[in-house]
Design a protein that fits this description.
Number of strands: 10
Structural class: alpha+beta
Shape: globular
Order of helices and strands: EEEHHEHEEHEHHHHHHHEEE
Distance between the termini: 52 Å
């Protein structure tokens, strides 16, 4: 049975392109980047060949119209924690992992949610409800699930769900060595020594790998292949619940407001599951742009329960107060 499911999280709704569109050549495009490399391109930049890990100069050569955006580490962490809180509805063991990845221990949850496929479908839907897309990977080890999730993001693996431990070695061996979390710090050394896959890396002498890449690579390989323990600190739900969502644009319809409010409700449902609790009433506080000097600054809507799981919410039958 699988012990971990990895989800690589990215904001917005995206799709995976196949070919360059003629209209993309002059169309503005954007990408998150650090001081040296591309972290995440948008759809247009991806079509033009810009990939995570590409150098900034290479990205500009492929897409001269590219605009690079700086990463807001605090906002990214807040968003990732919001997703983790919502996913507590499916398992008490949720871990925030490297490179915007959330790991879930699902071996004890599959039967409750109707099997692995149904569970992953629910997880995908919840992540989407939080305003993000995800790329899933499932494996008997945490790093194995992490690798498969990121392999799916880069489209370098055909199989991203592994249940049996006997299959783990075969699938991981075929993955490119560039997926190693520390690969970018070694430049093109792997290419120079003819090491293209994880299988190639595992065939190298251990002393030579430790001397060239550090002992940490050997430890990471052992954890990914299930040959060494991999203890991780689980994400803990706060003692009390309060969540805030800043809307990206002016909202003038109830439907758009409820869509945004559902993101908060999903977090509340995860928090309740983590505490084995339910609520008899919860409130939604709206802060308004002031249309007039004496217009109310806030409105409060209250829903009366009992509630424990996320359900569609409406303004019908709720209480409003200005």
């Amino acid at each position: 049975m699988p012990s971990a499911s990895g989800s690589s999280i990215s904001p917005g709704a995206t799709s995976t392109p196949n070919d360059v569109h003629a209209s993309d050549i002059d169309q503005p495009c954007f990408a998150l980047a650090d001081h040296a490399r591309i972290l995440m391109p948008d759809l247009v930049a991806f079509r033009l060949g810009v990939r995570p890990g590409s150098t900034r100069s290479h990205a500009f050569a492929l897409a001269p119209q590219l605009t690079l955006l700086a990463v807001d580490v605090r906002e990214e962490q807040n968003a990732l924690e919001a997703v983790a809180l919502a996913l507590l509805a499916f398992t008490p063991k949720v871990v925030l992992a490297h490179a915007n990845t959330v790991l879930l221990e699902v071996s004890g949850s599959m039967r409750l949610f109707g099997g692995l496929r149904a569970l992953l479908s629910r997880v995908t839907s919840t992540v989407k409800g939080c305003g993000f897309t995800s790329r899933m990977g499932c494996a008997p080890t945490a790093w194995g699930a992490w690798l498969l999730a990121h392999a799916r993001t880069r489209r370098v693996a055909r199989r991203v769900r592994i249940v049996k431990e006997t299959t783990l070695v075969h699938v991981l061996d075929a993955l490119p060595v560039s997926l190693i979390p520390s690969a970018h710090s070694h430049g093109n050394v792997f290419e120079q020594i003819g090491c293209a896959t994880l299988a190639d890396l595992r065939r190298l002498p251990r002393k030579g790998v430790a001397r060239r890449f550090g002992q940490g690579v050997l430890q990471w390989l052992a954890q990914a292949y299930g040959q060494a323990p991999d203890p991780r600190e689980a994400f803990c739900a706060p003692a009390s619940f309060e969540a805030r969502l800043e809307l990206q644009a002016r909202v003038e319809s109830a439907e758009a407001l409820l869509f945004a409010a559902r993101r908060l409700v999903l977090q509340l449902a995860g928090w309740l599951s983590a505490h084995h609790a339910a609520v008899s009433e919860f409130s939604l506080l709206l802060e308004h742009e002031l249309a007039a000097r004496h217009a109310p600054k806030t409105s409060t809507f209250k829903w009366r329960g009992p509630y424990r799981r996320a359900k569609p919410i409406t303004f019908s039958g709720c209480c409003a107060r200005s």
